TrEMBL record:
<feature type="transmembrane region" description="Helical">
    <location>
        <begin position="148"/>
        <end position="167"/>
    </location>
</feature>
<feature type="transmembrane region" description="Helical">
    <location>
        <begin position="68"/>
        <end position="89"/>
    </location>
</feature>
<keyword id="KW-1133">Transmembrane helix</keyword>
<feature type="transmembrane region" description="Helical">
    <location>
        <begin position="7"/>
        <end position="28"/>
    </location>
</feature>
<comment type="similarity">
    <text>Belongs to the EamA transporter family.</text>
</comment>
<dbReference type="GO" id="GO:0016020">
    <property type="term" value="C:membrane"/>
</dbReference>
<feature type="transmembrane region" description="Helical">
    <location>
        <begin position="212"/>
        <end position="232"/>
    </location>
</feature>
<feature type="transmembrane region" description="Helical">
    <location>
        <begin position="125"/>
        <end position="142"/>
    </location>
</feature>
<feature type="transmembrane region" description="Helical">
    <location>
        <begin position="95"/>
        <end position="113"/>
    </location>
</feature>
<feature type="domain" description="EamA">
    <location>
        <begin position="150"/>
        <end position="285"/>
    </location>
</feature>
<feature type="transmembrane region" description="Helical">
    <location>
        <begin position="34"/>
        <end position="56"/>
    </location>
</feature>
<feature type="transmembrane region" description="Helical">
    <location>
        <begin position="179"/>
        <end position="200"/>
    </location>
</feature>
<dbReference type="InterPro" id="IPR000620">
    <property type="entry name" value="EamA_dom"/>
</dbReference>
<protein>
    <submittedName>
        <fullName>DMT family transporter</fullName>
    </submittedName>
</protein>
<dbReference type="InterPro" id="IPR050638">
    <property type="entry name" value="AA-Vitamin_Transporters"/>
</dbReference>
<keyword id="KW-0472">Membrane</keyword>
<feature type="transmembrane region" description="Helical">
    <location>
        <begin position="244"/>
        <end position="263"/>
    </location>
</feature>
Length: 299
């Protein structure tokens, strides 16, 4: 399975991730960000662990453990706290649009670490996508919750965590296996979130949960945790970080639909235009550059 399989896996991961934004928004008012993350990645870890232990899969080398653990704390620790906290202030659709800055941030991080070149075509796509995000967020300011800008900012910071993880994790995934790498990194983040949640009493709120909230947590763990991030790691092993990040265009559409179904959010004209602009910008950035004289394409 080659790059095409990686791109498809990334798109599926982003679609499920978008649905997870809507589901997180559904329970964000009843459970704090630490506890949501602890449930999401704790359940995800337990579901993925049996698959990691069978089939003689290659685990990250011991010399890589500290860096894998650091990436786990960043992505499965800091990312969910920022992600979940943002949805206490903003809507699912706006949050997904803010998360759509991921391709931009990934291109910049990849260029800084000299993993990929930031070409003119990618820069044009970045500008188009960012314009769409800005239009959607600013034009809808009067219709958004009072503190929506805080949620938007937190989601952009969450996207930065994801961008760093996507670029920095690729060599470790290549040296091991997508499942074993994800299990190790997710386990570190889940333990950190569970310890913090226990110390702060964050789990007390679940005593009043009904069937709907438990189903939402189950979805976040099985699909938003285990499946989403396995597919993300699978994609990173088979294609470039920027091409994986570009798939995030699927995210706002899924988030807007789930947000409308679960919490009655309305998709207004500015959000619709923003989604179109984001998709257009990502399409421009994803297209290969002209073949150079040396016969290679810009990446």
């Amino acid at each position: 399975m080659g790059e095409g399989a990686g791109v498809l896996a990334a798109m599926l991961s982003s679609g499920i991730g978008g649905a997870s934004i809507g589901v997180t928004r559904f329970i964000a008012g009843n459970l704090d960000p630490l506890a949501i993350g602890a449930f999401r990645f704790g359940i995800g870890f337990m579901l993925l662990l049996p698959f990691a232990l069978i089939g003689g899969r290659s685990w990250p080398k011991q010399s890589d453990w500290s860096r894998v653990a650091a990436l786990g704390l960043l992505f499965f620790g800091a990312f969910p706290v920022l992600f979940n906290a943002s949805l206490a202030f903003t809507t699912a659709a706006r949050g997904a649009l803010a998360l759509s800055t991921l391709p931009v941030l990934t291109m910049v991080v990849a260029a800084v670490f000299k993993v990929e070149h930031l070409t003119k075509r990618k820069a044009l796509g970045v500008f188009t996508a960012m314009t769409g995000v800005a239009l959607a967020l600013l034009a809808g300011f009067s219709e958004a919750p009072a503190k929506a800008w805080r949620g938007d900012l937190l989601m952009v910071l969450a996207a930065l965590c994801m961008a760093i993880y996507s670029v920095a994790s690729k060599p470790f995934i290549r040296r091991s296996d997508p499942i074993t790498f994800t299990v190790l990194a997710m386990g570190v983040g889940a333990v950190a979130l569970a310890l913090a949640s226990t110390a702060l009493g964050s789990f007390e709120a679940v005593r009043t949960f009904g069937a709907g909230q438990w189903i939402a947590l189950g979805f976040l763990g099985a699909f938003g945790g285990a499946l989403t991030f396995f597919l993300w790691a699978f994609a990173l092993k088979r294609t470039t970080p920027t091409r994986v990040a570009i798939s995030i265009a699927v995210n706002p559409v899924a988030a807007a639909l789930v947000g409308a179904l679960l919490v009655g959010e309305v998709v207004r004209w500015n959000l619709s235009i923003g989604i179109v602009a984001v998709v257009a910008g990502i399409w421009i950035a994803a297209r290969p550059d002209s073949v150079s004289a040396g016969g290679t394409k810009g990446r």
